[in-house]
Amino acid sequence: MQKQIDTLKSLTYGTELELEGITRKRAAEAVQSVTGGTISYKGGCYDTWMVTAPDGRVWKMVSDASLSDRNNSAEVVTPILKWDDMDTLQEVVRALRHAGATAPSTTSQHIHVGTGEMTVKQIINLVKLEYKQEELLIKSLGTYDCRIGRYCKRTDQSFVDRLERKAPKTMRELNEAWYGTYNESPTHYDHTRYHFLNLHALFTKGTIEWRGQNGNLHAGEVKARIILALAMTAKAINARCASAKGRRTYSETSAKYDMRILLLHLELNGEEFKNTRMHLLKYLPGDAAFKRARRAA
């Protein structure tokens, strides 16, 4: 158990929070109220505001074409964060909410996990672990159907088939499996990025992106979603192998129980992860203690 938790806490991450009801300048002020540092205006095509924290890391407030009101919205992009930064991130989320930000159904939260020294085999392990549990993860996060159909599509079956058939061993071979053919210079807005688990970010940023999270300004939920992404990645790193076969069928009768078992496999048990479990189970039907409905006494 300790190896899994140690791996989880060693990973780097970042998140992007899409917000409405707040200007980018006001969002920068809210971030600065937590991190300290200085605010600066860069402008450009993303109308960027920045907060440079005392440690030199930069938080960015940028425009996003998917948000309905360009002048009264912001995508808050964190710098690279570590486990010890989680409390600061939560305080930033609270400050943004108190400053008037909202997160309606048109918004999302994206999570990037740094791949560091992950091998190709470990990355493929992650793809297979996510693919196998994808429907349960989608329901646990409450991902809106409209987003699944456009901005965070389910994992492409043909991609999984190529992984199974060709068993990539190099980054070039993994690139070919993801894009269908080798893509030496992927463009930022390549269409493959719009998947629940986005490996396009691996070839452009060196991260793996989770795109299934709806917009959110609940600090506990934001943290729980990040921990889930970190835990899945840690499991992939420590697993000897993973299989995409036997993909879980989502069942409303056993959904909450099934997710609890998954969280136990990810070793998110104990008091430290009590709130994480609560947030990741609360949208699911069923009973966490029973796979099937309880029998009447």
- How much of the sequence lies in strands comes to 15-25%
Distance between the first and last residues' Cα? 36 Å
Tell me the overall shape: globular
Percentage of residues assigned to helices? 40-55%
Mean pLDDT: 95
Total count of strands = 8
Category by helix and strand content:
alpha+beta
Largest sheet, if any? 8 strands, antiparallel
Order of helices and strands: HEHEEEEHEHHHHEHEHHH
What is this structure, in a nutshell?
The protein has 297 residues and is an alpha+beta fold. It has helices at 2-10, 24-35, 86-98, 120-141, 145-148, 157-166, 171-179, 200-204, 219-238, 255-265, 274-281; strands at residues 13-20, 38-43, 48-52, 58-62, 73-77, 108-114, 197-198, 207-214. The chain is built from eleven helices and eight strands.
How would you describe the overall organization of this protein?
There is one protein chain. With 297 residues, this protein is of the alpha+beta class. It has a domain of 181 residues. Helix content is 41%, strand content 15%. The protein contains eleven helices and eight strands. Strands 2-3-4-5-1-6-8-7 form an eight-stranded antiparallel sheet. A hairpin with a 5-residue loop joins strand 3 and strand 4. Helix 1 crosses helix 9, helix 3 packs antiparallel against helix 9 and helix 6 packs antiparallel against helix 7. The longest helix has 22 residues. The two termini are 36 Å apart. The model has no long low-confidence stretch (mean pLDDT 95).
